[in-house]
Design a protein that fits this description.
single chain; 305 residues; alpha+beta; Glutaredoxin; 6-stranded mixed β-sheet
Length: 305
């Protein structure tokens, strides 16, 4: 049946095509903006404040005192949860408070026998967390290798930056499909972020940049190839949300936040590359490199006093 609508003129068809092309360009621009993870303004305001060496580290504090308390998550002093999160959208090794652990010589999803727990709360978009990782990564790896600690990593999205979700989606893929490389990839993601901060160039803060970082730490290519789909679908959103919920419920005030044996650690005491080793072993500060410091014996109680 005829619609009796007049045929468009050539000029009208050309104008309609122009408008359609404009609509497609605008949609693509919106998508590109969503995928542009680090804005220059973010790089400028969140830059690492380092002047004259490690002694000038400044850690971000965010007021969370007015957040409602929750009994759903154990306090840091009560130890690690015993149950897994066990939900779709959360890596299978992750505990019910969004954390995951390395013990028994850096083995994922283990807790070292009779070893104290080092809890680190962090945000993948936190410049001060990146600086903390840069200072202490080698030391933490040595402490794990020496079976001196169990490391519990607690992610959150405190700064509300999209980059955090992107990294956590990629991290979720690695935890689920390449667990042996997960700690190395965690460190590599922070190294990528640190480089962007130092150079004020966020061009590598993309899924492709994370794939390249994963390749450097031996994440199989068939695993890193799944990063984009996970990020596009926000596959691990429940994990991101759970980390935020746990952080707020515990009345924590900023990132990074560190606990050792359930006690909050003053970050001003963690300014050197051997500070965690000294904390764990009970030794006094020395000028020795991190790898040597981790081998120092604990002082004997009978020699004190």
């Amino acid at each position: 049946m005829s619609t009796n609508q007049p045929r468009q003129t050539k000029a009208q068809r050309r104008e309609a095509a122009r408008l359609k092309a404009k609509e497609l360009r605008e949609a693509e621009a919106r998508r590109a903006r969503r995928n542009t993870i680090a804005r220059r303004s973010f790089i400028g305001t969140a830059g690492v404040a380092v002047a004259g060496g490690l002694g000038y580290l400044v850690y971000l504090g965010v007021d969370a005192k007015n957040k409602p308390k929750s009994s759903k998550f154990p306090a840091p002093s009560e130890g690690l949860p015993s149950a897994k999160a066990n939900q779709n959208g959360i890596p299978k090794q992750v505990l019910s408070d969004a954390s995951w652990t390395y013990g028994e010589g850096a083995a994922l999803d283990t807790v070292g026998a009779s070893t104290p727990v080092l809890d680190i709360y962090f945000d993948y978009s936190c410049s001060h967390c990146a600086e903390f990782e840069g200072v202490h990564t080698q030391e933490i790896n040595q402490l794990l290798s020496d079976k001196k600690i169990t490391l519990a990593l607690h992610p959150c999205k405190l700064l509300r930056q999209e980059w955090t979700s992107v990294v956590m989606n990629a991290m979720g893929v690695v935890l689920d499909e390449a667990p042996a490389q997960s700690l190395s990839f965690h460190n590599a993601a922070f190294e990528l972020f640190s480089q962007a901060l130092q150079t004020k160039n966020q061009s590598n803060m993309t899924v492709e940049g994370l794939v390249a970082a994963a390749t450097k730490v031996n994440v199989p290519k068939e695993v890193s190839a799944k990063f984009k789909a996970a990020v596009d679908a926000n596959k691990y959103k429940k994990w991101v949300d759970l980390g935020d919920e746990a952080f707020k419920a515990r009345d924590l005030e900023g990132t990074p936040t560190v606990f050792f044996k359930g006690e909050k650690v003053d970050l001003n005491k963690l300014q050197t590359r051997t500070a965690l080793t000294e904390l764990v072993t009970g030794s006094t500060p020395t000028a020795q490199p991190t790898q040597q410091a981790s081998q120092q014996p604990s002082p004997q109680p009978t020699q004190q006093g």
